[in-house]
Design goal:
The protein is of the alpha+beta class and 303 residues long. The chain folds into three domains: 54 residues, no CATH class; 71 residues, Urease metallochaperone UreE, N-terminal domain (HSP40/DNAj peptide-binding domain, Sandwich); 91 residues, Urease metallochaperone UreE, N-terminal domain (HSP40/DNAj peptide-binding domain, Sandwich). The protein contains nine helices and 13 strands. The protein has a four-stranded mixed beta sheet with strand order 8-9-13-12. The chain has a three-stranded mixed beta sheet with strand order 3-7-6. Strands 1-2 form a two-stranded antiparallel ribbon. Helix 2 packs antiparallel against helix 3. The longest helix is centred in the N-terminal third of the chain and has 17 residues. It is elongated and about 100 Å long.
Length: 303
């Protein structure tokens, strides 16, 4: 697994404070944000590296492990456990030559070498050279994918780049904002032939100018002229799949809501199922009236 220098990624030194790190992250995140660099794979890759570096270096515990173990920081807990076990064995002592103060000097190498598999795999320790190296699972990777509300309403294929590798995925219709899906085996490579980690993709669904999503339902505000509101009639309304005709009852009040069944958002992983579309009428008052029209309103008001 290639080593990534998180300090270099953020452009700070190892003595940087948490405030320095956050400041550098915000500056770079704005520069490489996908919204400002559409269809730029290199910028997208850089943005992911910046987020990964910030996540590790702003977490005191993770940063400590990273500083101590470098590229193998995610295995720090396992290493320290192995180290404690090795120390306990080394101090247990035994009767015979080579013993002093309770140690067995031979346990550190040579014929009596007894380093654990983890020591062997991490540092190539002495002794037991023919022993099979321990395998460790690779680190999971997190990524973000931004979609429009309209794009997320249809099943589609997308190609994303993670750590320089292009991955083609199929996105089911109906994914929600903030939803995370797992793609097994597409995270970081394992150590010593261990299995790769998983890739977790979190979807960011942009707001839409026409529709607001509420679960599987959609909400929309529709302008309605005063004459149709009073007398009734028919209007044309937008849906995700095109325009439809909607009948309006006479004397419809401002704020009236009507439901268009099955015209909402597709239900995630349920083919052919949809939510509903709710239209809220917003009555528009007429402007630039002629004198004759104003007189008619006066007569109506006095009637």
């Amino acid at each position: 697994m290639a080593f990534v220098d998180y300090y270099k990624v953020l452009g700070v030194n190892k003595t940087a404070t948490e405030k320095d790190i956050k400041s550098a992250y915000r500056k770079l995140a704005r520069k490489y944000h996908p919204d400002l660099n559409p269809n730029d794979n290199e910028a997208n890759k850089k943005f992911q590296e910046i987020n990964e570096a910030n996540e590790v270096l702003t977490d005191a515990e993770k940063r400590k492990k990273y500083d101590q173990y470098g590229e193998n920081w995610q295995y720090a807990d396992a290493y320290e456990q192995q180290a404690r076990q090795q120390q306990n064995r080394n101090y247990s002592g035994y009767s015979g030559g080579g013993q002093q103060g309770g140690y067995n000097y031979e346990s550190f190498g040579g014929e009596g070498g007894d380093f654990s598999d983890f020591f062997q795999s991490m540092f190539g320790g002495a002794g037991g050279g023919g022993r099979q190296q321990a395998k460790y699972r690779g680190q999971d990777v997190n990524a973000e994918l931004r979609l429009s509300l309209l794009d997320a309403a249809t099943t589609q294929k997308q190609t994303i780049t993670v750590k320089g590798i292009s991955i083609r995925i199929t996105i089911p219709a109906g994914v929600e904002n903030g939803q995370t899906i797992k793609i097994a085996g597409h995270g970081s490579s394992g150590v010593n032939g261990g299995p790769a980690g998983d890739l977790y993709i979190t979807f960011q669904i942009a707001d839409d100018a026409r529709f607001k999503r509420r679960g599987n339902d959609l909400l929309a505000t529709v302008p309605l002229n005063l004459y149709i509101a009073i007398l009734g009639g028919e209007i044309t309304a937008d849906t995700l799949t095109g325009q439809v005709k909607v009948k309006v009852k006479p004397e419809t009040q401002n704020g009236t809501q009507v439901k268009l069944k099955g015209k909402g958002y597709p239900v995630y992983k349920k083919e052919g199922e949809f939510g509903d579309l709710y239209l809220t009428y917003q009555i528009q008052l007429p402007v630039n009236l002629t004198d004759e029209q104003k007189e008619l309103f006066k007569q109506l008001a006095n009637s």
